[in-house]
């Protein structure tokens, strides 16, 4: 194939596969950035399988090996099935196996000793393979290729962790005498070679020309209708995206159209499947069994059964979180329903690309939620269809990321001065702090790990941290699933409604010490939403620039937040039924923020008196948080905000927007560098909304801790006008390089919070990213 394409000198539909394979076989790391269903898998399988089938023996007597990394377990399992089907006619030369947290322990020893193509994820590489490298020595000595699939997902804090995990892998391989070639693939990456170099630390060749055939994709933007109901402060209420998506999934299933409905939260996936099943049962009871939910937190056997049913066509419809967004080959899928903008254009096209993978035409429908960003996109489709996907940017030098990986590397093999260049310029500065914390010790010419516990346990690379909370049925003791520790306060607090496999449970108690939530099955007519309080203080101002009389600043802050209550809302309408107080401990987060201030003169020019100042700031804050994902590769729940009429550190009216990750994730920095465009779009979104006094489509948040009080829509527009009058021109060259922007969005619902003394604020939800840095690792701002 490679020779034929080269000799012909023409653009074959699959020429990108040939070029990528040729680079890999020549020993060059390569990234393939072509569309969904363009055959990227063959780009890396050709060199991998040809090498494994070659039969050549490595110096240690074991044949060449390859490692495949996927961001999700589902994708690794799907790829393993494909490899086995492809290599079956070739005998037993290719021994492929999945090695992840679901792999039975009795199979793991066989995989270590005999598998030559191991499919896993960065989490298992970080916690399992690298710390146990002596047991994997024969595999690592012969490692020829490392495949990194869906590489665009490794961005922000998660991507920064993965970048350091890959550097640890390269270091160990070098000690064993191996220098693997890295093969990366993504359907939605901007500047793929740049991102791949940052991720791997190696020069990478880019293959991006895509001539593969594809069917027509019809893309619809769907805005739910207004209802007769009224929400907080009498604002009009639209039908929820969840209810609309459930109706669409029902209609598609009735017509025999194989479909997936993507939703942003685990609870949303369960709700859509329950609603669709109930409505399908009214048409044909057999159809109700052909729709299900798929999300993280299920037991391994439940996930595998759902994947098989979807792959075989037994399931007609599936309501899924982004756990199914990536690369799974679901042939025959005809339609995708996306309940709410997924946060980035890259994720939007990944989800839409799940349909039509067999070359047939396909339908994708984006159902807008009632919030500023979704409403803006429905009315400005050019922001989706006329702009490229976001750059995948990451910051491996973030000290909160780097410090635990230096400890892990030192435990794997003593860390020498020669190793430091591999880990970046910040490494040398961190070592004295790690020594002062008694985590590392210098002996002769190397740094050694000093503790008995495993250094790899210092950090969770997905930012979740802590032991997962087990969800247990109180009456039977049956384990239903797990919830990330950081999400427990907001999702399984006492009184929370918890959905699992179409069944509804109510949490009776949450034991944080034992990490157990006891639930009992129930049928409430409502869902629950947690609310928090927050306060923020400025630790250090790195940069500030004048915006007329006001100032735009960027620096380090400390945020303290606490879940204080939860709301009960009707499932379909979102109507608030009541609020219940909670008593949970506070959490502290050191992170990075952008903030802006205005002066008394500016307030006078904007005709904003003290009575409406808090509402104007609060409304501007809500809208700016809602619009930031359009300018930074983030989910809106990865960021938080606070608005204060008189902040003690600035002594001025101030609006803060901060990263919901320890040490920062680059979102606030990106906001700082694109502030003029970001706040201009925010002003436009608020001013163009047809409501009178503010609604969820512009300045209201359904999860605001202050109950959306105070809010002043017109005051927010005038405030943004006077602020933007003094905004300097943005620098366009290298804007994408301004700082890290983007992170793997957690599955979660985002929860609004209020600051003490009535200070409005917004906080990221589902909280893995809310947890403070491990106290054993020195917090380096």
Automatic annotation (TrEMBL):
Keywords: ATP-binding, Helicase, Hydrolase, Nucleotide-binding. It comes from Streptomyces gancidicus BKS 13-15. Residues 21-207 form the Helicase ATP-binding domain. The keyword Hydrolase applies. GO terms for molecular function: 3'-5' DNA helicase activity; ATP binding; nucleic acid binding. One of its GO terms (biological process) is nucleotide-excision repair. It holds the Pfam family MZB. SMART domains: DEXDc (SM00487), HELICc (SM00490). Residues 248-400 form the Helicase C-terminal domain. CDD domains: DEXHc_Hrq1-like, SF2_C_Hrq. This is Helicase. InterPro entries: DEAD/DEAH_box_helicase_dom (IPR011545), Helicase_ATP-bd (IPR014001), Helicase_C-like (IPR001650), Helicase_put_actinobac (IPR022307), HRQ1_WHD (IPR055227), MZB (IPR018973), P-loop_NTPase (IPR027417). Coiled coil: none annotated. Residues 728-781 are annotated as: Disordered.
